[in-house]
Amino acid sequence: MQLVEIYFSLLKRDLILAYRKRSELANPVIFFVIITALFPLATGTDKEMLRTLAPGIVWVSALLATLLSLESIFRSDFDDGALEQLILSPWPVSILIIAKITAHWLVTGLPLIIMLGTPVLSLIGSIGVALTVGLRRGGLLMSLLLLPLYIPVLIFGTSAVGDVANGMNITGQLYIMGALLVLALTLSPIASVAALRISLN
Amino acid sequence: MPSDNLELKAVDLACERNDLALFNHLSFSVAPGQLLKITGHNGSGKTSLLRILCGLRMPDEGSVQWCGHCILKNRIEFLTDMAYVGHQHGIKNDLTASENLRLTNLAGSRNQKFSIPDVLKRFNLEQHEDVLARNLSAGQKQRLALARLLLNNARLWILDEPFTAVDLHGRENFEHEMAAHLANGGMVVMSSHHPLSGTINNVVSLELGRDNNATG
Lengths: 201, 216
Known about the structure:
The structure holds two protein chains of two kinds. Chain A has helices at residues 2-20, 22-25, 27-43, 47-70, 75-80, 82-87, 93-109, 117-132, 139-165, 171-200. By secondary structure, chain A is mostly helical. Chain A has one domain. The longest helix of chain B is centred in the C-terminal third of the chain and has 16 residues, at 168-183. The radius of gyration of chain B is 17 Å and the shape is globular. The A-B interface holds A 6, 9-10, 12-13, 16-17, 20-21, 76-77, 79-91, 96, 200-201 and B 54-58, 75-76, 79-80, 82, 84, 86-95, 99, 102-108.
């Protein structure tokens, strides 16, 4: 089917673009590592305490790293007019946007390897970027909009990491994260398209 | 697709920017084989009008119709038939010329008549096939953006200053492409400061900004 073909050509395009700018590619991962490494320096090296803090730290760092890299989903396309072409395509724009989000997640979320949670962060994040991409300094506003929406992922993600460290069953958290992923996958592309149309108007 | 009432029609369009009326009660239509050339001084609303015509911007009043239907209600049919090249032409700097044509073609139906090397050749870009777009000159980039038009079957081309930075030879070249497109029953709506050389006969002019009741 041609739509599948277009999905993959857009995905490939974004991956090639990310590869050609590969110096920027490592930034979110390095940021993640540095933030995580700052905590023992700030709180002291008491092993027991770090063990309780670790799940929260890992998730908050992942969340901040995602936030840092989110703008790249739409920013350069907005600046050079490729986004207009995307909106003017006769194909369902939400599918095309999922291709862009997939590419973003593959290059930033995947290296963080918190499998179920990070695609939700990219998906919800795309709404925030779509809303603020038309503003000159939208970065801070975007963070303010998105951080509250990230709270459910943070709660269940942290509790999953904590429970798994204590050798407990995490099926419940995984189900809820899966549900969040399905919810975000269905609704956020639609919201992103609507937000992009407003940004381009 | 209905070809009997194929026509782009603007009905009673009005557009405001920064509380300033750019145009009011603007109505015109474009038929197959026709080129509508929009002129006017800087800031007279040429780009706004073109963005309204392709559905990127909402008109403050009035509507745009394609084949008798409002383009916002009949989106898919309209977008399949329309190609837009704007000021920001959507060329990715980090892709090569041929990748730009191959990977950013999101059109509804591909034109089987031309292949990508073919199109590059027609726009005199064949030596730059594997050059990153960031290393092309402004005129070459603009030609690359225009080259995309030949890769889909859009019958309506909406072009915002297509000749910007393009040299005389490239301009003549593209006028020939437009003439061929029009001869095939296509339509072109464009804004330009350059006079057309005369290869195209069926030109209608529309001047914005002189008074608020321009007629086409």
